[in-house]
Structure formats: structure tokens, C-alpha cells
Amino acid sequence: MTLDGHKRMRLVPAGIDTYQQPVVYMHRDCDICRSEGFTALTRILVSSGGRELVATLNVVTGDWLGLDVAALSDEAWAALQPEPDAWAVFSHPDPPASTQALRAKVFGQRLSDRDLLGLMRDTVDDRLSDIELAAFVTACAGERLDHEETIGLTRAMVAVGQRIDWGGGAVLDKHCVGGLPGNRTTPIVVAIVAAAGHRIPKTSSRAITSPAGTADTMEVMAPVVLDLATMRQVVEREGGCIVWGGNVRLSPADDILIRIERPLDFDSDGQLVASVLSKKIAAGSSHVLIDMPVGATAKVRSPQSADSLEARLAITARMLGLTAAVLRTDGRQPVGHGIGPALEARDVLQVLRGDAQAPADLRERSLHLAGALLDIAPGAVPGQGRARAEELLDSGEALRKFMAICQAQGGFSEPVMAAHTQPVLAMRSGRLWDVDNRRLARIAKLAGAPRAVAAGIDCRFRLGTQVRAGEPLFHVHAQSRGELQYALEYAAEHPDIFSIEDR
């Protein structure tokens, strides 16, 4: 037996998804737990086959795990990549180098660029536990990151991930701050801008707390899990792409921080700016348009909040050599008819195809954004972008480009609709004055979205329209009767999602 043989255990997959957090499972009575003093939530260094991983310990008290076996969560297994019947050595990791900077921020001190770089390195190396990361996110929440720290955090996020170099010339991009269900303008904007002859490599996110992310919607129509080499081939061939950013890991520190931030539901301008701009810089973008919906139940809830966020975006982008423009949009209500991957994909295709049933608001917003992005491209004549965008959409050039992008990414598929649908009826007559975007999105999620891609909501009413009692306000789509009932029960419990009054 080797000197550290007493620290060795055989590895097996636990078959447990711990969502980006590496976890190791050991029985509480195993020799390593007893001798090393390992307890639940201890951070453990796992070494196997020349690879190392810092993981969080979960202690098993039942009899499903042997005393000589350690089980790895899906995330830990993928990171360590052990051989079949592999063994690993377990020990205490060195304390994270960034602990001092983390404590300083918790107690209200400013962090230097070096401090922030150290924190982001330890974040992507899994040296910091979720509890420590939650402390960092909390310490930065509100206005506790100043402009210089925001710039430093953005630089640090870029530095610890991959970065694409597209060579010379402009690279266009767009991003939506979020908080608005069904706002699926990205595929349309990418198609228009690429059809205009510009490069627009779009990396998009999957849903975490929403009924659909852009990547979820695009995946209904074409593959989005592409590596960097394949992504580059698609862009070189067609000028644009729409791929899942999580697979190319352009800003992995941001992906980890988002996992911590979402359950906490903290609003931090500094972290939001660093999140958005780090991914744009890492993707090689030179000119970026930011769509900022403003509304009471959107992410940005007031004009004052929009002013603050826009100023921070502008300063950070300028300091990092990025040309960025912010376009404020109406965030009071959903955009398009569908909320959920397949329903949103249907809306996108209807707009691109010029279908008479296409949602007018999705078409108008997409043209508005595409025109604004074309206006900031090098050599553009300001004010002419909208007309050019409309020409490309109405002529069918945008549709042809979108289909070509889909084929380059692996092939196009038509969206499939859900097996079960049921309307939710208006309880009274009157004019629609308000809608709670968050609760409406909650219904779509209870119906199964985004996991069940055909699930969600189809809603045709818009603010200011007249509603009659007994008329369908929206239809719930679900792939199982159980999920349909969950969604309908929640809708019945919250009849005030739509505010219908005679005024």
C-alpha cells in the first residue's frame, strides 16, 4: 500500500444532477470520513488519473453506498473523467487564495482588479463553496460594486474563460436584459443582421427560472450544442449563429455566479453589467445592442433604474473598448403570442415567413432592434437601419438566411405543438389594464416549460384591449394531463394576473 493508500476509495457515478456543483458522496462510517474529520458540506480535494477536483461532501447515512466507495455527482464525474473502476485519493484542499478578498468585500471594502481576478479564478476552479459564493454575491448586491469594481469584475470574468478572435472587422451582437416572457427577438434579429452581410455570432442562455431561454427556443428548430470549432465554421459560412453559450464556456465564472444569484433574486447593476459584457467581449463582439425592457414586473422596473443601469453599461463598455448602445423597450407585457420553447419558435417562424397570423408586436420589436443594431455598425448611415431591416424581412432574405444558419448548425426542424391544451377564461368584462409577467411565466413553467418543449402559454390579448367575461384570456399547453392541471390550478388561485377593469 502506498503512503496515501488509506486515503483511497473506488469511484462510482452517483447518477445525481447537482446542477454545476461538484459533489462527492461518502458513507459517514467510512475510514476517510472518520480519520480526516470530513463532515457534511466539507470541501474535499479529489485526485484521480492526474486530474484534481474540489468538491463538496454530502454524507450518506443509508446503506446504498459501501464503506469503500465514493460516489460522484454528474457534474463532478464529468469534470474528473475517471476511468472505469478508477480509484481516487481524498484530502483537505488548501484554503482558497481569494478568501481574504472575499472577507474584505463582505465588510464593505473596495476590491482591486487583482482581488477580483483571484476570486474569479477560484470560482472557476471550484475552490469556493456555494456558501462563500453566496456571501460574495450578497456583498456585491445593490450598489455595493462601484464603477471601477464593475470594470475589474468584467475583466476578470473574461480573463478566466475562453475568448474568440474573429480577425479583423466588426462583430455585431445583441442582448436582452430580460424579465419579459416570450420576448424571442434574437433569432429574427440574427437572421436580419446576417442577411445584411454582417457577422453576428450569438451565444445564448438556457432558461434557469424562466419558461424558455433563447437557446431552448432555438433548439426546437436546430441544434445549439456546438463546440467552438463548429461555431466558427457556421459563422464563417453563414455570417451568424445562435448557439448555447454554456457549451463554449466563454465566461464560465458568470455561469457559476448566475447559478448562485437566481435563487437569491438579488438585483445588482454591477454584476449584471459584468455578466452581459464579459460574455460579449469573450465572444469577440465589437458592437453590441442592449435591449432593456422597462416595466413593473420586468427585471428593470423603473426609468430611474434604467438610467443607472444604462450609465454603468456605457462606462464599462467604453473602458473595455466595446461599442455599446442601449435601447429601452416596453416591459409591461409579454411579447409575441407564445411563452415556452415550441410556442416561441412558432412565433419566430411566423414572423420570418410573413405569416398573416404572426404576432405584430414581435415583428415590430425585432425590426426596431435589428434596425438599431444596423445603425451602430461601422459605416452605417444612422437612421437607415430600420428600413434596411424591414426590406430584408419582407423580401424573404432573412428567412433564407435563418434556414441556412439552421442547416449549418445541424438541420432544421418544425416546432411540434403540445398534446393537451385548455383555455383560462376571463371572469369579468372590461379593458385589460395590467398583467403580471412573473406569474404568467410561472403558469408556463408549471405546465412543463422549458423541459417539456411544447408546453407553455398562448396569449393573444394586449394591454388596452376589451375583454368579455367567458372569453379565453390564454390557452395553457402541456404534454401531460398532470402538468396541465398544475398550471390550471395556479391560474385559478391567481385570477389577478390580468387586471381587467372598466375605467
Automatic annotation (TrEMBL):
It comes from the Bacteria. Residues 431-498 form the Pyrimidine nucleoside phosphorylase C-terminal domain. GO terms for molecular function: 1,4-alpha-oligoglucan phosphorylase activity; thymidine phosphorylase activity. Its EC number is 2.4.2.4. InterPro entries: Glycosyl_Trfase_fam3 (IPR000312), Glycosyl_Trfase_fam3_N_dom (IPR017459), Glycosyl_Trfase_fam3_N_dom_sf (IPR036320), Nuc_phospho_transferase (IPR035902), PYNP-like_C_sf (IPR036566), PYNP_C (IPR013102), Pyrmidine_PPase_CS (IPR017872), Thym_Pase_Put (IPR028579). It holds the Pfam family PYNP_C. Keywords: Glycosyltransferase, Transferase. GO terms for cellular component: cytosol. PROSITE patterns: THYMID_PHOSPHORYLASE (PS00647). It is an enzyme of class 2 (transferase). It catalyses: thymidine + phosphate = 2-deoxy-alpha-D-ribose 1-phosphate + thymine. GO terms for biological process: pyrimidine nucleobase metabolic process; pyrimidine nucleoside metabolic process. NCBIfam families: ARCH_P_rylase, PRK04350.1. Belongs to the thymidine/pyrimidine-nucleoside phosphorylase family. Type 2 subfamily. HAMAP family: Thymid_phosp_2. This is Putative thymidine phosphorylase.
